[in-house]
Design brief:
two-stranded antiparallel ribbon, mainly alpha, about 260 residues
């Protein structure tokens, strides 16, 4: 049996992973050193570029990726489980699973920030299924103040998820229309034109959803989104303007049909 390396997490709790996977999981002290010594060019790499370096065995790149996203993943976990110890454990599980996927992947850049939230969701569901008493998940009294630091907590805004779903539906509406046109087209030329239109709408829809998730669901700033996706700030601003225009257009259509 291989010896596991202890990975420090909050409140002196520990997890272990196999020696041949990662030397030392990022610790608070080590991350401070990373922030002070990391090369500026590496610091501004996109998430995809960092993960590519991780796959090549660059542990500093993984530590920087962790430093970039850990706080938001922790806040999201805390908003779900309302338990500081459990939230910290879920965060560690998310990043360990990410690391193991990345080092075995031929395309590591696909495992970006959205994937972290997916792992968190499945990890929390797995925890609930394995927990015999799901009603005893509570915050320690002395740690109650940490609840106020949750960024984008679903509990702080009960209608947030519903609102986000409404926006996603608005974004997806042109794609639904484009697919319908493909289905209704008859002649070869008409079909070809409809398919070309559908492809363009799919590209615009994917960009809009990615922009919405980064800026409004995950709470990243425009500069952070630019860094995450390897874009310029102007490109992000342009994406955001297109997203806002699209949503406004859908809202105007809704008002006209009332």
């Amino acid at each position: 049996m291989k010896r596991g390396i202890p990975i420090p997490i909050y409140k002196d709790a520990y997890m272990t992973i196999l020696d041949n996977n990662i030397a030392v999981f990022p610790s608070r002290k080590k991350l401070e050193t990373v922030r002070q010594t990391i090369n500026c060019e590496t610091y501004h790499l996109s998430d995809g570029e960092l993960l590519y370096l991780v796959a090549k065995g660059d542990k500093l790149a993984f530590e920087h990726f962790y430093d970039r996203h850990e706080k938001r993943i922790y806040n999201k976990a805390l908003s779900k489980c309302q338990n500081i110890q459990l939230a910290a454990q879920l965060v560690q599980e998310v990043f360990v699973k990410l690391y193991l996927r990345v080092i075995d992947s031929e395309d590591p850049s696909k495992y970006q920030v959205g994937y972290l939230y997916t792992i968190l969701e499945t990890s929390y569901i797995d925890y609930l299924r394995s927990c015999p008493d799901k009603t005893n998940i509570a915050l320690d009294h002395e740690e109650n103040n940490d609840k106020d630091s949750i960024i984008g907590s679903d509990h702080a805004c009960p209608d947030k998820i519903a609102e986000q779903d409404d926006v996603i539906r608005m974004i997806m509406k042109p794609l639904a229309k484009a697919k319908e046109l493909v289905h209704k087209s008859t002649g070869i030329a008409e079909k070809k034109l409809a398919l070309h239109r559908k492809k363009k709408v799919e590209e615009d829809t994917n960009l809009a959803i990615e922009t919405f998730n980064q800026l409004y669901c995950y709470g990243y700033s425009m500069q952070e989104m630019a860094t995450n996706l390897g874009l310029t700030l102007e490109q992000v601003k342009y994406r955001n303007k297109k997203l806002i225009d699209l949503v406004k257009c859908r809202l105007d259509e809704t008002e006209r049909h009332r």
